[in-house]
């Protein structure tokens, strides 16, 4: 009896999991409405679409093409991203709910508030039932007018996603001020606890490679200082300049993929070091809100966002990303770097890796003496470093597949019991 009850609970949990996974796709929804194609396009470019899709309950306040084009003209993507986040309410509002607001006015939170960029409560939106059946939206900044007016309901998926049109963007002073383009990457990295990495990219010349890629879309995975001191880190001072450059290029992706987008994209991604199919790829794995990057040799958690200046962002990682192409899979000499052996774009005269000398790994060979941290199953490290393990990628991190199969087995068991009774 107890077993039957347990199986039933397990089956119910499985159903709930299935329900939570089912989600909306704002890009797909708006594709049906060409009058919002400009808005839709910016949702994709800024990756706010991924943030919207990751929310279970959301209201998108959309702007028609003319209004959106006027707003976006000559503005940096980072500013447009802020506006789009403010226009994404983290609650479900249809016309009835708008007109039924108790006391006629309510504050609702938005994506801008949850991303942490908004000062104070500026990431909230004031919704007020105005005279004459109109509903106005406005900023919470003192002195703001409720001059964004609800015009119509575009598409509703009750209690999941509502798409409403408003006539005017919600703005406040400072919302459109993008982070200064002249951000000093070295200073940002140092402040975020990535001094060693900052020194390496500066001394190797890779900083210039990053800077020239920033405008077209770039995501940098910066290991923190602890990562360079961790047990088993190979002695980077034994690498040639060209190898250091390749290693640092491996820590960047020539696309804008902030954390919300990584969460929506399991599978292999190519890096700045990638030259051919599958070479120097990283494999993205997700589990709940966690993103990890697998190199084939080790696995690293994506920790914090240092800067998100669309289309450029820096995320910190807990471990150095060690490509199998450079460090091999067994304690054998690393393969030659034939295609990358040409002089690095900005060769240095002094040793490119001063700090890692603190690293404990004494062996000059370029292999991990102890295996990578044992938190993940070794089965996650295919020998060739290629994403051959797409099944385990889908299933999430190690350990998860087992519990899912447990649920499936329980569901099958309860099903047969119900049939039998
Ligand atoms: C959402 O829909 C768009 C357009 O149909 C598609 O390109 C995109 O891959 C979808 N996103 C997800 C996460 O499924
Ligand atoms: C919304 O704004 C109006 C007009 O400024 C104000 O009277 C009202 O108190 C605000 N509502 C909330 C919940 O702050
Ligand atoms: C950037 O910051 C670093 C360290 O904080 C400093 O040494 C460097 O001069 C700065 N670069 C520029 C261009 O300001």
TrEMBL record:
<comment type="function">
    <text>May be a cell surface adhesion protein.</text>
</comment>
<keyword id="KW-0654">Proteoglycan</keyword>
<keyword id="KW-0336">GPI-anchor</keyword>
<keyword id="KW-0732">Signal</keyword>
<protein>
    <recommendedName>
        <fullName>FAS1 domain-containing protein</fullName>
    </recommendedName>
</protein>
<feature type="compositionally biased region" description="Pro residues">
    <location>
        <begin position="332"/>
        <end position="346"/>
    </location>
</feature>
<dbReference type="GO" id="GO:0098552">
    <property type="term" value="C:side of membrane"/>
</dbReference>
<dbReference type="InterPro" id="IPR000782">
    <property type="entry name" value="FAS1_domain"/>
</dbReference>
<keyword id="KW-0325">Glycoprotein</keyword>
<keyword id="KW-0677">Repeat</keyword>
<keyword id="KW-0449">Lipoprotein</keyword>
<dbReference type="InterPro" id="IPR033254">
    <property type="entry name" value="Plant_FLA"/>
</dbReference>
<dbReference type="Pfam" id="PF02469">
    <property type="entry name" value="Fasciclin"/>
</dbReference>
<keyword id="KW-0472">Membrane</keyword>
<dbReference type="InterPro" id="IPR036378">
    <property type="entry name" value="FAS1_dom_sf"/>
</dbReference>
<keyword id="KW-1003">Cell membrane</keyword>
<feature type="domain" description="FAS1">
    <location>
        <begin position="181"/>
        <end position="321"/>
    </location>
</feature>
<dbReference type="GO" id="GO:0005886">
    <property type="term" value="C:plasma membrane"/>
</dbReference>
<feature type="region of interest" description="Disordered">
    <location>
        <begin position="332"/>
        <end position="397"/>
    </location>
</feature>
<feature type="compositionally biased region" description="Basic and acidic residues">
    <location>
        <begin position="383"/>
        <end position="392"/>
    </location>
</feature>
<comment type="similarity">
    <text>Belongs to the fasciclin-like AGP family.</text>
</comment>
<feature type="signal peptide">
    <location>
        <begin position="1"/>
        <end position="23"/>
    </location>
</feature>
